[in-house]
Amino acid sequence: MGLLDILLGRTRPVAPDLDRLFALPSAAVTLEAAAGFTPTGGGAVCFASVEGAAFERIHHEVRELLDADTDRTGPPVEVRRDGYGYSWLVSRRSPGQLPQLVNDLHAVNSSLEAGGFGPQLLCSLAAFADGGGRKLALVYLYKRGTFYPFAPLPGAAERRDTALELQLKAVLGDDLRIEQDLGRWFPVWGAPGL
């Protein structure tokens, strides 16, 4: 980065580090001990859809790879589109299979990145819940290489539990690289897998 970039406030984008996803199982232990949230077995990767044969081929290969896993419990991998036009590849495992879910998320991200579709990747999430019906997602921002907690309020239309999110930011700081810019903690309303 040159002096002109510094003076103009330009920064280089952070290179994504998909291996940070592998910190989720240890963060889950901390999350359960500190706040009572346990994995639900749901997770998803969000990406901007692209038209074309190359993207469809990689998309199909990723689904075949994940569906071929004989250890999978529950429905096969599914693709959904949200109201904003983004695609979500959803994986479901049993709640005790968080490491396998993380492998699924990593495989999807890696395959799309290797196929030249890294710029279309937006985020990945792993879902958690507590005994009281509260839901939580730990969201990984692909382009930032950081995580943030997203906690929608139960029964409330598009309202989030900001106090819980900030509490979890402090709790998970030693386990995950937490996004410090709270303006980037985008709500993922109705995200499949959550």
Write a structural description:
The protein has a 6-stranded antiparallel beta sheet. The termini are far apart. The protein has helices spanning 3-7, 24-35, 53-67, 98-117, 162-172; strands spanning 38-48, 78-81, 86-92, 121-129, 135-141, 146-150. By secondary structure, the chain is an alpha+beta fold. It is globular. It has 5 helices and 6 strands. Helix 3 (53-67) packs antiparallel against helix 4 (98-117). It has one domain. A hairpin with a 4-residue loop joins strand 5 (135-141) and strand 6 (146-150).
Instruction: List the domain count as a whole number.
Output: 1
- Radius of gyration, CA atoms, in whole angstroms: 17 Å
Termini Cα gap: 39 Å
Q: Count of helices?
A: 5
Q: Strand percentage, roughly?
A: 15-25%
Helix content: 25-40%
The H/E string reads HHEHEEHEEEH
**By helix and strand content, what is the structural category?**
alpha+beta
Strand arrangement within the widest β-sheet reads 2-3-1-4-5-6
Q: Describe the largest sheet.
A: 6 strands, antiparallel
Tell me how many strands there are. Answer: 6
> So what's the overall shape?
globular
Mean pLDDT: 87
Q: Regions with pLDDT < 50 over 5+ consecutive residues?
A: none
